[in-house]
Amino acid sequence: MESWWEKMKVNNKAYIRRLAKSILNANKSRRNILLLAIALTSILFTSLFSVALELGKSMETQTMKTIGTISHGSFKELSDKDINILSKDKEIKEFSIREKVGILDDEKISAELSYMDKNGYEWSLIEKVKGKFPEKENDAFIDLATAKKLGYKGEIGEEIEVPFNIEKPYTGEIIEKKSDKFIISGTFQNPIDSNVGVGQIYLSKAYVDKLSLPENNKDVEVMLKNSFMIRNKLLRIAERNGYKVADSPENLSDKEIRIGVNFAYLLSGDSSFDFKTFLPFLAFLILVMVAGYLIINNIFKISVNEDIKLLGLLKTIGMTRPQIKKLIHLESLAASLPAIIVGDIVGISIGKIILNKIFANNEMLTDVKLSLTVIILIILFSTAFTLLTVFLSVMRPARYAAKVSPIEASRYNETTIKKKYKSENITLGKLARRQVFSNKFRFVSIVLSISLSAVILNSVLTYTGNIDLEKGVSDVIATDYNIASPKYFRYMYSGSEDGINEKFIDEIENHKGYKGGGALYYYGYEHTYPDIKIEDHRIAPILFGIDEFLINKQKITEGDFDKDKWQTGNYVMLGEYGDKKSAFKTGDKIKINVKNKVKEVQVMGKVEYNFSNGLRYFPVIKEDVNDESSPTLGLEYIYMNPNEYKKLTGDKSIMSYGFDVEKSEKENFDKLLKSFENEPGFSYDSRNLQIKSTMEFKNLIEFAGYSLSIVLFLISVLNFINVIATEILRNMVNLSILEAIGMTKKNIKIYLVKKNLIYSFCGLVCSFIIMLLVDQYILIDFMEQTKWTSFRFVIRPLILVNFANIIIGIIFTCKFYEKHSQNSLVGRIKSLE
């Protein structure tokens, strides 16, 4: 037989929604705490996703600069027929054609000649473009560096003569030698971060069409629907159109092509993205979900307990279990929507502040602005995770509410004593302990939420409090100033063409206040294994020429530096980086072979190798340079007397020059070096700049950590206050009865305060245990890897946060009880029955 409720169709969705809103709004203080808790959770998620997505976008953009294009990928060695077939594929949104002509016929200058269409120009990340792309037959669009190497000014309208060889793509086979005159229609520069070490000369379509070029000399760059798993998409496109993808450019058949993937895209499938770099974000994500879950779950558990008699009544008149569950979930949804909107706005603002600080202090990250697409993604991710957190938090209370029968609900009393106490001597302390531990789940959730903010704040201060500024900068700069080309400071030093011009050094050495300096010489990519090797050892040596001034600035880890022996040129110092030890000991004799020119030297000692005395990158050198699958060789860093270095390598290029100045003249040197920065090929670093950068980095970590800790602290305090308020209101009848039989208000306050002190003390113990685990398994290892920190145990923030909880708990408990106990005893008991 159908119930009256079912006949009246009370399963109506609109009615249940109105009922959910009414129940939610019935207790405004509980509703406001819930709104604030969900908003704080949303703020944490939004700020996290803002930072993560924008950093990812910045890393992509920076890597694209080194590659030279934003296209997703490419198909190589195509004919016009191949292009006609592949370009029509449904997965290709746009495409660009590049037709290869050949290379510049000059032994000293390396440059490619080709034609590129409009899309290709738009997708290439070239900078400082002047003039226009080639339109007339004899137009040429050339990078400025190549024009100057050819002996021209690189001005628009200037006539240049370009000798070049028409070659078969990727084989180097010369088909024809030519030389023609062109008019410069435009110039450009490759980004300073670019890996494209080869110059580029782009010719017009009209000129290229007149040449006798090989048929399969075109590459097609493509933009796909998205950048997810680019390699798989390119393979699918090739196979769908009847092509086989080959790995090697040699001897391709008619239906064989090669593909290229832009690995700058983090989700391309070819990215060097390391999952370990994502772990901190994942840990933060889980932490936010746990923090949000603890308070939201607790609020709804308390809500269900408060409304249990109403829910029992609704069941009595026919509301089903699924409808009860739906009612609770609709309550959570009604609270979530406005809270999430506020959380998204505040979270994006906080994320923007953090990102501005990150981009301002890290020159290796491109400052990218929040685009509309990224903002929408952030809002979607944040909303999804916040709603998931709310849903998970409400599941248990909703299931509990649906399970309770109408009779149980009408007799419900959460504080029912389940066992008889053996002792009749019930003190306030014992009563408080029994009350606190009567609900194990709530006890754990409150203690955990108190602990989380304390642990995070303590971890941040442990890290920032142990940053040693002098130790931090000594790995990067050992002198007051260091000058070099911009490419050196951007980790892109490639060889003699990137060396610092000695005219800058001359001016510095003749400037008032100069105390002393020294040069670091390095040949870059111009020599590599096996042209340069150590006889009888499968090791790739990295040779440096280093002036005595700089040697005296290094940390010697083995042996001693002997000035007289050094001057002979028959001794070397070896550099060791971290745990990577040298294959040689002090006193060993080694034979260095540079293009069959052999020099035997003896190891004088060892120094600590780092950015201040070496490269700003770690070369990967294969045993067979033409085979990517061949073993990677170990590196041996060898420091030689500069004169001996020059004789052996034939290279005189100075990679960097470090010098010290009088303290009183530092301001004048800053002005001098800043004036040099306007000239190409010059950049500088200083100890003061590095200390400032390290301080800004420290402040950034503190800012992010404090922001997170404050929000989590607010969540824990909210949770604590909510529990205190709800327990006082729920037990007001019992407290009033205790007052009626002789207990003073003062004693009742003591009883309530003791309950809160138990929570606070347990929170302190719990946070101390969690902190020990975090220190042991996370912070110690992490701080060992960062050269500028050394681990020391910190506990003061733990105590301060828990002390704050105690003070807040005591003040709020006393004030809240006073406010709700002003009515007469009889009135209080009747109103709460």
TrEMBL record:
Residues 283-399, 707-811 form the ABC3 transporter permease C-terminal domain. Pfam families: FtsX. Keywords: Cell membrane, Membrane, Transmembrane, Transmembrane helix. InterPro entries: ABC3_permease_C, Macrolide_Exporter_MacB. It is found in: Cell membrane. Belongs to the ABC-4 integral membrane protein family. This is FtsX-like permease family protein.
